[in-house]
Structures
1.
Amino acid sequence: MAQNIIHLVNVSKNYNGTEALRNINLYIRKNEFLTLLGPSGCGKTTTLRIIGGFEAPDGGEVLFNGVNITSVPPYKRRVNTVFQKYALFPHLNVFENIAFGLKIKKMDKKLIAEKVHNILGLVNLSGFEQREIDSLSGGQQQRVAIARALVNEPEVLLLDEPLGALDLKLRQEMQIELKNMQQRLGITFVYVTHDQEEALSMSDTIVVMKEGSIQQIGSPIDIYNEPKNSFVADFIGESNIVSGIMLRDYLVKFAETTFECVDHGFKENEPVDVVIRPEDIQVVPAAESKLQGEVSAVTFKGVHYEMIVQNNSTRWKIQSTAMAPVGAKVGLQILPEAIHIMKKVTVK
Ligand SMILES: Nc1ncnc2c1ncn2[C@@H]1O[C@H](COP(=O)(O)OP(=O)(O)OP(=O)(O)O)[C@@H](O)[C@H]1O
Ligand SMILES: [Mg+2]
């Protein structure tokens, strides 16, 4: 079992009455790629700033290798940060920006040049040493910011939406590149994004946050397949979420129709949220299914079609490589394993 390098214990943070973080308990293992995921304002940046030491929690403690570092200033933590708004030095060129931390450490000039050269290769900016920061695109600046943090070989790297400004293709390339670097260099990454695909494809562990609270912690597969509540299910992927009644173990009713499912342990007739992924609904001839509807929209998405099927009360989003045209009356087939039953989220 890998050791915990960072441990947040009961961390809370208040900004003039706004509870930015409520009782956060989280440990991060050595060499782990952990992602904080959640909508804007949920407290991701605040969590990173507390780990980095740029913000002090109002309550709770931050432990680093078991030692309380809550009051240790940022520059004394073995942590580096790539900020959401990359703070490069505009009066220094690319080389000088990246070399800055190494020069402060009084590292040998030749070694600095070699390290900067290597790191520029890693972020796909070979030959950019002498470029002025102003002359770079947003994406290039962001990669300089990543290089500048990586070159210090920190034990922990905090990254706040580091790929946010890049176009899709470059973002996907950088996702793979960052993940490779993280594994090769053996650095612990604490990564912030509000992009669930990015979180799913890069992370060992995902922490889903909402309004300053942790909703679920788990592997990408766990979070995707076994979301704890409808908020996580909705946020982590496109989902159909409908209200239902758990009639008894293994039997649920939604959309005026009774379905077998694989869940149990609910009260008889307990109201629940039912979550079904768009790719888990099959379109079949109307006569072959107890749930029917009419196709109201079809969009070609490249790999698959996305169809909206309306039945009396419910609008279903379906992804399929087979297409039924708008106006078609179709049946919807949903297998027991595709039905995820969740406790109703209680309103605070
Ligand atoms: N310095 C501050 N002063 C006052 N309120 C703040 C401050 N920093 C953050 N907040 C508030 O704390 C909450 C959490 O903010 P935070 O920046 O951590 O969110 P986030 O999850 O990083 O969002 P985003 O995805 O938009 O970057 C928000 O309600 C925000 O307005
Ligand atoms: Mg933020």
2.
Amino acid sequence: MKYGRKILEPVAGYVPGEQPTDLNVIKLNTNENPYPPSPRVVEALHALGTEAMRRYPDPTASAFRRECAKRHGLPGADWIIAGNGMDELLSLAIRTFVDPDEKVLAPYPTYSLYDVLCKLHGCEMVSVDLDGCFQLPEAFHTTPAKLCLLARPNAPSGVSVPRAEVERLCRSFPGIVVIDEAYVDFGDDHCMDFPERFGNAVVMRTFSKSFSLAGMRIGIAVARPEIINEFMKMKDSYNMSAFSEAAALAAVQDYDYMRGNVERVRATRGRLFAELTALGFDIPESQSNFLLARWNGTPTAREIFERLKTRGIYVRYFALRGLESALRITVGTDEQCGALVHALGEIVKK
Ligand SMILES: Cc1ncc(COP(=O)(O)O)c(C=O)c1O
């Protein structure tokens, strides 16, 4: 006897990267930040006490949203919704703006959760292949849909399409354009000004990467108030815990701390890029905290992935079309990346 809805039968569900319980492994597989969050976040959490556990949290995280509005120069907190990680906001976007049987447009390859969310909602995701440089082909601009999901920088390529391309999309696309800026703090530019310029633009950010808070589950979506109102209707009453709200507020208040960690990751990214390239990997220029290292030799990328794992080094391998010969490697500390390069040197040596 099957009790699940029919719609769930063909859905495999999202497969997240492994979270090994052994804390001694070198974990470069889920794009977490290798550095700890701001000490002010830790202080804010310690300060909460049992009252914060006993009472319900602020249902809309208003103090955090006000602080974000100030930080990003937005007209007010009503331009922002906070969520239990960006994944919740992505799911909300599909449920808020797309009817089952309508279409969602996304490039391929991209964040694989998009497709899972569409299937769970019963809508179709139309995937348009990126070109050989991971840029948008012309067909992307001419495919109509109700909602477009565009990760910028994209995953797993790490490549950002030019701002002008996103601008063109916002002007011509007939529905909502979600610009997923999960990794944007590691890049050179952003699109946070788009919601004020375009009525259909929604910019999303996560605190899982640059702010080192993946375990706290914090994300924001920024759009015009009439769009945020629709999101608000759809969300759970208390979609963030009191602890996430307090951590989120302290994190944005200590923005410079985050920037310091990001600069360290960017510097390591440059060194890792050079070292992996010297080993023979082919890597597109990354605007994020990971590198897509393509390998056309022996052993295969999958074998390299397995051998690294036996040495306690976790990277990500996707058995997906076009990514069969690639490893996605999160930029860790210099020490972690040094250990990775050393191991790779032994594994791929002729
Ligand atoms: C492109 C992209 N968007 C969104 C997310 C989700 O972020 P969060 O941890 O806030 O749910 C991720 C996480 O890996 C991601 O890679």
